[in-house]
Specification:
With about 280 residues, this protein is α+β, with helices and mostly antiparallel strands. Helices cover about 40% and strands about 20% of the residues. It has a six-stranded antiparallel sheet with strand order 8-6-5-11-10-9, sandwiched between helices. A hairpin with a 2-residue loop joins strand 1 (about 1-5) and strand 2.
């Protein structure tokens, strides 16, 4: 198989796809039917593939019937980081160009298995007065646009589980703190294809985020453009257009078959001046 001038061995690519999927779903694990569906292969083929990975101690099947990475690899840093590595390789130049174009700070983030935002990369605004964050690894998703733009495209059952189990702490007067308000907000994000936050996590910090699509059309990450609120309000239409265009460019290079579209359904894959608490 050839892809953009490269020879790809399909069987090897399939093994790497499985390992990457398991690395992103380590907490919940994947059923055999999940693996077959995501790979687009018969269940019988998925069975033989997983038996091989199990026998070679790359994956293991738990008492709940779900597959996870073998314990030998569960805490190894970056050994199977292909998805994030490819995403970063594509996103870095696009993010740098976006910051040069807008003068504002840009973040790339994914959702962790427990649905918090994990920041993979940031490019900070060159302006003297700018938005930036500390380097904490995880941040809540419900009060940031980069988190909500990914939560919105989760399956409905997973959203309801998140709403039941997450304490919606109030950070500012604009923070959404009820399941009803957040549910309605996520529905609006699915409809419009982007998310905005105005003073929802920190007063004076605002931003807009767009989803990044993977090869199967699932949301694999969010791209965020953040600014001090006064500047954001004066240019939020331009910032929204810029971040959406940049997210589409990353999606196109990352493998989405139709990056110009916004996500059509609930599909999210659960693959950082003065410092403020996180991307907004």
């Amino acid at each position: 198989m050839k892809r953009k001038g490269l020879v790809v061995v399909k069987s090897a690519e399939r093994v790497l796809d499985v390992l990457e999927m398991l690395s992103l779903e380590q907490e919940r694990g994947l059923r055999l039917t999940d693996i077959a569906d995501r790979l687009g292969i018969p269940k019988s083929s998925a069975t033989m593939l997983m038996k091989t990975l199990d026998a070679r101690c790359y994956a293991t099947r738990g008492p709940d019937g779900r597959y996870r990475l073998h314990a030998l690899f569960q805490h190894a840093s970056g050994w199977v980081g292909g998805l994030h590595a490819r995403l970063l390789h594509v996103a870095r130049p696009v993010m740098a160009a976006l910051v040069e174009r807008t003068g504002e700070t840009c973040f790339l983030g994914t959702l962790s298995p427990d649905l918090q935002v994990r920041v993979l990369h940031k490019v900070v605004s060159p302006k003297e007065v700018r938005y930036d964050t500390d380097d904490r690894p995880l941040r809540p998703a419900y009060c940031t646009s980069i988190g909500r733009v990914q939560l919105a495209f989760l399956p409905a059952g997973r959203i309801e589980e998140y709403l039941r189990e997450t304490r919606l702490e109030r950070f500012t007067e604009n923070t959404l703190t009820t399941p009803e308000a957040l549910r309605a907000d996520l529905a609006a994000i699915r409809e419009q294809g982007f998310a905005e936050s105005i003073d929802t996590r920190e007063v004076g910090a605002s931003g807009v985020s767009a989803p990044i699509l993977g090869r199967d059309g699932a949301v694999v990450a969010g791209l965020n453009l953040s600014a001090v609120t006064q500047r954001f309000l004066s240019q939020h239409d331009a910032m929204r257009a810029a971040v959406t265009e940049a997210a589409d460019a990353i999606s196109s290079h990352f493998g989405s078959p139709d990056a110009a579209r916004r996500p059509a359904g609930p599909k999210t894959t659960t693959m950082p001046a003065a410092a403020l608490p996180g991307p907004v």
